[in-house]
Every structure is written in C-alpha cells, then in structure tokens.
Amino acid sequence: MDPSEFGTSTIPLQHAPYGPITAEALTNKNAGKVAVVTGAAQGIGAAIAEALTISGATVAILDLSVEKQQKTQEACEFHGGKIRAYACDVSNQDAVMKTFDEVEKDFGPIDILVNNAGVLVQRPLIMSDFDSFWKQIEVNFKGVRLLLNLYLFKTGAPKDVQEKYGSPKDEEYFKGLFKDPPILCGQTCAWLATGQGKDLRGLYIGEKRHLAVIIKFLTNV
C-alpha cells in the first residue's frame, strides 16, 4: 500500500530517524524559551511540563487552581527548572488574557503553547446533563481557540491584522481575526505540517514559526 495514493493527510513528516526521547536527549533543547502548558495538574499536561523543564524551558503551568498543580511544580523544580503555577479557566476569555499578561510580566514573551486542558464526561448520553456537555465544548473547543488566537497575536500576528482588529481586548478581534475566523480542519493541518500551502502558513503563523495541531475527538457519546 502506498500512502501517497490517499492524499496529503496520510503523508508523514519527512525527518531523519531518531532514538527514544530520553532526559538526556531533551537537555537544553529549549533553553531560553518560555512555555505555557494548560491542564498541567496531572496526567499528560504534568508530563509535558516536566519534559519541557528538562529541556531547559521556563514553564508556566495553568489549571483551575494553583493548589492542584503543586505536585507538577515540585516535579519540575526537582530538575532545577524555573516554573510557576497559575490559576486559569481556559474557557474564560478575561481569565486567559489576564493570565497571559501575568506570564509575560513574570517571564517575558511566550515561545511555546501547549493546549492540553480538556474535560470528558464519561457517562452515557441519556445519563448526562446539558451543562456537563456544554462544559466540554467550552473547554475543549472554545478554550483552545481563545489561547491559540491570543498566542498568535502576541507572537506576531500580521501587521495588517493588528491594524484592522486591534488587540484581543477589542470585541472585533475575536470576531474577525485573520479577516475570517480560521478553521483548522484535518486537511489544513496536513498542508501546514508538510510545508504545502505556503500562503496559508504565512497567514496563520509566519514563515519562521511552527504550529502543532492536536485534534481531540469525543468518543462514547
């Protein structure tokens, strides 16, 4: 079977083979960079924060409360990393903007954003309530979009976009960022990842930036 027969989305990134991602391999790979990790109180988010610390990044971890992130912070500090925990509801636009401002005040411009925060109500649909369902939408979709938009703006949105829509504090910014709200579907992600669609790459992230998109699917609904 030839993957190229099935379109761009099935073609893997072209890179040289690499070994296991060990602590030694990560050391100082992100030295001097500032990273933000959401949903860092436990699980994948906590592991990513620790790996970024080992790689030399200064890490800002976000979750609903600072207390819940204590173990993550201690694990990162064990490696000698510079880390700070922030309480932030990623589905709340004002909270996200305030937290980003605090991170930049504490550490400087943000270089890396890991949109990890997510919720999943693991109950049969007939037994779940609408508020629980909507919370998933707010965190898993709205939250990701809020953080991505703000990150793109702070890391260098095209000048004409800034002039037209102002800052994320303005209502029009979130209504019309990049002229039409960007929708990243699977095919678009493949174009970005494989280097095709250069105009699209420049529009979203600039020629010198990389964008990793993780699409989470809700199952057992």
From TrEMBL:
InterPro entries: NAD(P)-bd_dom_sf, SDR_fam. Coiled coil: none annotated. Keywords: Oxidoreductase. Pfam families: adh_short (PF00106). One of its GO terms (molecular function) is oxidoreductase activity, acting on the CH-OH group of donors, NAD or NADP as acceptor. It comes from the Eukaryota. PANTHER family: PKSB, RETINOL DEHYDROGENASE 10. Belongs to the short-chain dehydrogenases/reductases (SDR) family. This is NAD(P)-binding protein. It comes from Didymosphaeria variabile.
